[in-house]
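Entry 14. Two folds queued back to back today. First construct below, sequence then structure tokens.
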Amino acid sequence: MFNSFSHSIPLAERLRPNNLSEFIGQKKLVGEGRVLRRSIEAGQVHSMIFWGPPGVGKTTLAQIIAEHMNLPFFHLSAIESGVKDVRLVIEKARLAGKALLFIDEIHRFNKGQQDSLLGAVEKGIVVLIGATTENPSFEVIGALLSRCQVYVLEAFTEEELREIVNRAIAKDEWLKSQNVEIEEWDALMRLSDGDGRRILNLLELVVQNIKGSRKIINNELVQNIVQQKMALYDKTGEQHYDIISAFIKSIRGSDPNAAIYYLARMIEGGEDPKFIARRMVILASEDIGNANPNALLLATSCFQAVNLIGYPESRIILSQVVAYLASSAKSNSAVMAIDKAQALVRETGDLSVPFSIRNAPTKLMKNMDYGKNYAYAHSFEGNFAVMEFLPEKIKNTRIYEPGNNASEEKLRIYLRNCWKDKYGY
């Protein structure tokens, strides 16, 4: 018989691996002979940041490292912890000689909270492992980031997810007693979306809601149970990505009603306002651009404002800017232009800059004709002079194409007056 007490612990927690031989996934980091595995096995682990989506083994890997190095393990959540909690752990680590401090969602720590870690990390009192789903370049202060190695963790493959489920069915006492059989996998795979913890939670939820001595799992059954039982918004799982996708697409599609609805879904679900605002800054250039340059200014101001204010007041700022962005004219000309330019650079390589527009800070350079025949635009009528700026091999290549909107039509007219014979605007 299975232990009823152990069954009260979530399946994902009951099956958490204790060592690298049990750990599934992240073969690029902890596979045989890989960089992180070599460090762990050599006992030379440094402070690090694990960057990756939810449910890919960040916490588990931190616990395995602590166990392998025989270090006290302290786990803080950045949502619930502050400087006082960090200092308490550091003091305990100092008394123990050294400890491993794992901070989940470290991107939610503000600058002051992150600063409180610097001394202990620098002195080696703690081995810091921070876990984040956000780009650490934006969310972790430079001083702390420079003291940590960043490792990118990837979502589980379908093969790895199957291995996780099959191991659970084979090893967990409660699951073994339920006579579970997976008849179809598609729904489990789609709903878990590469998240190992989520697929185990789904498995447990489905098995608990099937009557009878045999639990045969198929796609229709999984879908029906999930629709009945799952929460409206899970900010660490699939819903996180579905809702933000719907939010962005609604703004891009000029529907402020839908955009503000999905904004409300995220706010009610406790989504980080900085995450929402940062995506709006990106969208302001990607989808609006020069059709309305004020969009980027307003989105950037929104990001700065929510950083200062936070919930609940920042919901009003977010709503204002969402309504503005969704109601604005749209253009993706900036994206198209930089995509075309980067493709051109990759195709043509390191082309020589024309001598006429090279800088000539020394006499030698001037003697080599650096800057010769450069036409200073402001010295000419209309502040414009015809000359060649692109490398010879790609001269006359039109990269920027103004969008079909009133603002960019003005840009097109100006460019046509300047470059009609060269670029054909």
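Second construct, same run, same settings:
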Amino acid sequence: MNVLVVGSGGREHALCWRLRASGHAVTAAPGNPGMAEVADCVDVSASDTDGLTALALERRVELVVIGPEAPLVAGLADRMRRHGLAVFGPSAAAARLEGSKLYAKQFFQRHAIRTAEFAECASTAEVDAALAELGGRVVVKADGLAAGKGVVVCATGEEARAAAREMLEGNRFGAAGRKVVVERRLVGRELSLLALCDGSRCALLPPVEDHKAIFDGDRGPNTGGMGTVSPVGWVDEALLERVRREIFDRTLAGLAAESIDYRGVLYAGLMVEEDGTPWILEYNVRFGDPEIQPLVARLDVDLGAWLLGAARGAMPSGRLEPSLGAAVCVVLAAHGYPGDVRTGDPIRGIDQVPRGVQVFHAGTVRVAGELVTAGGRVLGVTAGADTVAAARALAYRAAETIHFDGMQFRRDIGAREANER
């Protein structure tokens, strides 16, 4: 089938690669240099609603897959559906689950979905009142979209005040930070769990563990993700069933009760307590980057059939079972990330990576024919194998063949998982 993938990052490259491997013809808008190897890239911005709709109609695409969150929040899926297009991606109303942290927390409360106690704050005085109630160990979140950087985990009240002040008064995230959510900090192990949804049913993808901090040992500031591993050994079928029943199913039922038909992916950021109790931290309404990379490496299925089924409200029966035992994604980041990023550094060595490794482009462009860095997270080096240890070895061997000035990456992605196994 003819598929249009909207976006230009590592997530979209991974989707294009899996769709093309399943035999589909893929158009990407606007795409990136890596996506150009598996898709026909057309220079239409992900924010150009009219241009994207016209492109989909002109090419008679049978499925549109919207990658980034901003076009979803802006209503791209609604516009395309009005033109009769099958779209994998939620409506603007449904996308508020990611577009507003406050809306999401209130939704969780309305539908008895387990989440941390929180307060809505629009001033530093309200932050002080929230801290008096919740204590200093809190998480401060910008209400709106902040490119994955609007969450600060705080150990003290002073850290929380400083983070909130930077958002509310320092205008760090613009309109997205005019309100903040201050919530009680949960303790446990974080888990990323994604589910494809067709409005009435969800199909869980294999669990993924992300590594958010910039440095080895989970030190330093949080990033959008420095690497991922799948499977996650401490997650068993009983926990997956509990998350599906208590979080995903209640979410779909709550959306339906509010007359919202959710067709797309729900990406749950979870905290699992020592006793196995899962709590919802937040939802994303699109595939995670780099969470999707090990998933497409492990899932040798016709992903297009599943996404089309979700878009039409009737996914295939059965489960999404992985064909590979494990996969690891190591993110290669630019100089300065996650702060002020330097771009324009030439990238060498991608053509030397070992067989069986996929290098997904997240922040690259070509300038005068030369591949250079163009973002904070530049590449996602992804390898699959029978075991986590073997996948790690292959991914790091590939990472060592690539070079650009200022390149930084963690050397412990998946190490805990490999050791525990």
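Quick look at the second one. The radius of gyration is 20 Å. The chain has four domains: 2-91, 123-178, 189-312, 326-420.
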